[in-house]
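Notes on consecutive records. When two proteins share a document, each keeps its own sequence and its own token line. Never mix them. Below: protein one.
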Amino acid sequence: MRIAGARVPVSAMVALGCVACATPARPTHWYDAPPPAAVPDRLRWQWSLAAPPQPAAADVFVLDGFTTAAATVEDLHHARRRAVCYLPLAEVERDRPDAARFPAEMTSEAGRVRWDAPEGELRTRITPILTDRLRLCRDKGFDAAVLDQLAGAPRSVVDELITQAHRMSLPVGLLDAEHTDADLTVPDSPDRPPG
């Protein structure tokens, strides 16, 4: 988030829970949540990567960015809930709509991005595909993004992904990597993938 030209980190609780986070740059589907959701330490989070989210169960839902329909995100917003897009960025599963875009020489036999590939190649050939995955989250109306499987990725790739997420007005959290500009902290949960 930028305020008067300065970069200001936004915590998960501010980005997702407070009334004071209303700025002109936020997406139009954000809203002022009623108590107790407006109290940051009382936000209830739920990972719903396989099962459909039940709005009464939590305030914030972490959902699969590929399989969750835009209508599901919209339904959560109508119920005054927030939806966070989960993206396992190194996965190159054959059933993903973008699987064919990944160069074979930059993926492993296990169907993962090879973060040990040359950094320049990763930046020019892989980062645009991953940026399009972020765009998918934005276009479905998600409030934020949680990025996974970036352990071992070059710093320049992570820099670019976080920059692109912020340009799309998506607060971003990292599950298995660290970055000073990641502004979403996802609480621990038994349903959270090991990051």
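Protein two starts on the next line and is unrelated to protein one.
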Amino acid sequence: MRETATDRPTDVLTEGQIGAPLGERATLVQFSTAFCQPCRATRRILTEVADLVPGVAHVEIDAESRLDLVRQLDILRTPTVLVLDRSGKITKTASGQPRKADVLAALGHAVSQEPDEM
């Protein structure tokens, strides 16, 4: 995963903005376009990871139909993946087709920010 700039006007995304429920522990948000070949491979990888890690959701957003959000988040290419913690805070932004190991590492960071349970 190639990281992009972390200065964003929005640091937290809501269920309303992404059009789906947030994961209990983390959410992988993928911005794609219809003819993007790497987007298909990214979808497979993120789906596998979400199925593998309990409490993680994968949400794919069509960038062309959500230009408002694309502009707000300064998404410059597809695929772009945002890793959100359980509250919707963006903990990682990356563009290009990710490696499964990189997605798992980014998720580990997002999940490690969970409050300790007693």
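For the record: The two ends are 34 Å apart (CA to CA).
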